[in-house]
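Reopening this one. Same input as before:
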Amino acid sequence: MSVQTPTPSRAESAVRAGIEQFVPPPPRSLEEAGVSPSLVEQLILKNLYFRGDVMGRDLAKLLGLQFSVIEPVLDFLKQARLVEVKKSAGFGTVSAMFACSDTGRNRAKEYLDDNRFLGPAPVPLKEYYYAVRKQRVEPGWMTKQTLKQAFSGAVTTDEFFSKLGPAVNSFKSLLIYGAPGNGKTFLAEQLMNVDTAPIFVPYVLQAEGQYIKVFDSLYHEKIDDDDDEISALVRQEEKYDRRWVRCRRPFLTTGGELTMGMLDLMYIQAAKIYDAPYQLKANNGIYLIDDFGRQQITPAELLNRWIYPLDRGRDYLQFNTGSKIEVPFECFLVFSSNLNPNDLGDEAFLRRLEYKMYMANPTEDEFAAIFHGYCRKLKIECPVGLLTDVIETHYRRTGRKFRRCHPRDVLNVAVDLLRFEKLPYALTKELLNRAFELKFVPMEPVEG
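Same output, byte for byte:
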C-alpha cells in the first residue's frame, strides 16, 4: 500500500513569520507552487485548445498563478513551436495573445486523454494538510454569548446552551437525538450562524499524480475580499495564492442516501479526476449526518468508518488504482437521529460519540413562545386566548405531544387557507381547527 504523508512547507513558514490568520502566500516560482513545468504545460495547452486565443495575463488567471511564474513555461512552449504568439499590445509577453499551433493541438489532445481538467493549478497535498491544521478552531474559541448570537430569534434556555456549548467548543462529535420535529436538524444548521474567521479552501489538490476536486460551490460560500474585514496580510498586500478560495466555514449535510462509497474518493469518469468525499469538503467546518440509523449501511458500519479519523485527526482515502493517501480530518461531525440511541448500538459503540444531546418536547410555555414567534415572522396577529383554546382542543383533549415544528407547520397551512379563500389575514379558531385537520392524521383510528 502506497501512503503519502504530508509535511509542513512554505505555508508553515508564512505563519511562523507572524501572520495572524492563515493566508496562502502567492508563489513566486513553480518550485514554491509545488507544481512541475510539465503540469503547467498541460494546463496551458488544454486551455488554449478549448478557449482559442488567450492573453498571457488571462492564462495566468486561469491557472491561479502569477504570470511571472508561468512565463518560463510559455517561453519553452514557443521555442518548441507548441504555441504561437498571435499579437501583442506592446506591453511584453503578459499582454500577448497566445494560441495552440497544429503540433500544440495534437499534444493537447494527448493530454486530454489523460484527464480533462482545465481549472487552476492544483495545490500539493502537503500544503493543504498544513492549512487545515492551521485553520482548525482553537480550544475555548466558543463562548456562551457567541453561541447565543447564533441562535438569536430561536426559543432556547440557558440549560440548552450549557449542554450544546461544550460539544461545539470541542469541535469533535455530537449525537443529537429525540422525537421527530423537535429541532435537531435546525439546531445543527443554526451553527452555521456562528461568527468565525473565514478559511481558505483549494480548488483542487494533487496527490500521487491525481487531481482531487475539493472546492464545491454547493457547500463552500465564497467571500470576496471586500465583503468583510480580512487579515492584516491581505489588507496590506491585497493578494494571496489564487489557487485557493476564501470562504466561510462549510456546512455539509447528508441523510438516508449516504453510502460507504460516498465517504471515499469518487472518480469522475468524464473528467478523469476525483471528487473529494463529504468529510474532506467539510474540513474546518461541520458535517451533519441527518436521520442517522436510516442509511443503507448500518449505524455500526457508519460509525466504525469514523473511529480512526475521530481519534487521530486524519483519514485515509483510496484511488481506484488501490493506492491510498493520508488526509487531514478536522470537521465537527454531528449525528442527528429520531431513534433511541440504544437501538443504534451498544455502550461501547455510543462511547465513540463524544457528546450526546437529547432534544425533548417543548414545555407548554416554550410551545407558546415558538407559536407567537412564528406569528410575528408571518406578521399575523394571534388574538388573546386563541392559543390557549388551541392547546386545550388539540393537545390536552387528544393527548397529542407538543413538537417544536407544530407552530410553523400549522400556521403555514393556515396562511395557505387564507390566501386560497381570499379571507382576511387574521387567525381565528375555525381557521386553526381546519389547519390542524389538514396537517395531522386523526388521533383515533380511521374507520373504513
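So the earlier flakiness isn't reproducible anymore. For the record, DSSP finds 19 helices and 18 strands in the chain.
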